[in-house]
Amino acid sequence: MTIAIVGGGLGGLALARVLHVHGIDAVVYERDSSRGARGQGGMLDLHSGTGQRALREAGLIDQFHAIARREGQDMRLLEPDGTLLLQEDTPDDAPLERPEVDRADLRDLLLDSLPEHAVRWGHALDSAGDGLLRFADGGSATYDLLVGADGADSRVRALLTDARPVHTGQNAVELGIPDIDRTHPDLAAMVGRGNYWVLGNGQSLSAQRNGDGRVRVYLSFYNTPGDWFATSGIPFGDPAAARMRLIDLLTGWDPRITALIAACDDTIVPRSIATLPVGLTWPSRPGVTLLGDAAHLMPPVGQGANMALLDGALLGLALAAHPDDFPAAVEEYEREMFVRAGAAGRQSAHVQEILTSPDASRKMLAFFQPG
């Protein structure tokens, strides 16, 4: 029985790893030409009950602990005028409830745990169905079970549902400050060891320290249309001018906060944020299923990667428990995943609603410190 996994992200690799642990072969088809073909993004906080649970099932929890950053759990929450609302510093002996890890390091950990032949690089999916995958280069491959782990713009999803991602009203810009401790020690001290978050007026800035010394800075503009980047006046072709325009858009913000933007290098990446309907389900169909963002794309508030990893692990366990009955395994997996992902989606939507509110910083403080 041939298992084809489309997409070599965290969820697809977790599935391949758990299957490998249980002696079941699978092939991961990834469109990137190699593991280093493109950047993998910033840090992830892996939750003990979801993402870390997946790594335990994959037999990789000790290796994860070796690359996880306990101090990455630190957080500072501020208002745009610079008022510090919350500062949480992680003790050296604190449990690893939500440690941070570099996404690229985690992906490498999963890749290194698989046989070299398990991932077929340079295989961009063109279409799928009736047991056949067709790739953009003209090649093809057969499958008995197809798992769409191919992200927000999944091509496999259409085999199960007509649902498509919808813009949330959030448009984000990613920037970064390399080697911040050496180049801007004052800003490094302000950001701290983990996450620095400023919320208010339908805007947010988050600064996140990475393991390589880079601080990634994310600016978000809420309640904005899908074509907002075209009308915002941000000249993305001129990074210095784009940074100045971004600072101008943060009217009334403390100059110490906007200094983070001025210190960034010329890497500026616009991102329009979309989600799938919360609680999306579909009738179980033999031979195909979805995991991760392909199944339940959520706002980027800390749930997505954890859900994808756990999806992969639990689907792998279900297939290992029913090696001669893939339809039963898929139905068992989907039944649990729909409930779990629905709950995570509702919580993510609640956080997203807080972020869009006029008094977002105070509401977020209440979220972190209920009662």
UniProtKB/TrEMBL annotation:
Residues given in the record as NADPH binding sites: 38
Single Gene Ontology MF annotation: FAD binding
Binding-site positions, FAD: 45, 103, 293
Keyword NADP: yes
Top-level taxon: Bacteria
One Pfam family of this chain: FAD_binding_3
Protein's cellular compartments: Cytoplasm
Alphabetically ordered keywords of this record: Cytoplasm, FAD, Flavoprotein, Monooxygenase, NADP, Nucleotide-binding, Oxidoreductase
Gene Ontology annotations of biological process type: response to antibiotic
Family matches, as Gene3D superfamilies: FAD/NAD(P)-binding domain
Domain notes per entry: Consists of an N-terminal FAD-binding domain with a Rossman fold and a C-terminal substrate-binding domain.
Function text: An FAD-requiring monooxygenase active on some tetracycline antibiotic derivatives, which leads to their inactivation. Hydroxylates carbon 11a of tetracycline and some analogs.
PANTHER family with a match to the protein in the record: FAD DEPENDENT OXIDOREDUCTASE DOMAIN-CONTAINING PROTEIN, MONOOXYGENASE ASQM-RELATED
Protein name: Flavin-dependent monooxygenase
Organism of origin: Nonomuraea zeae
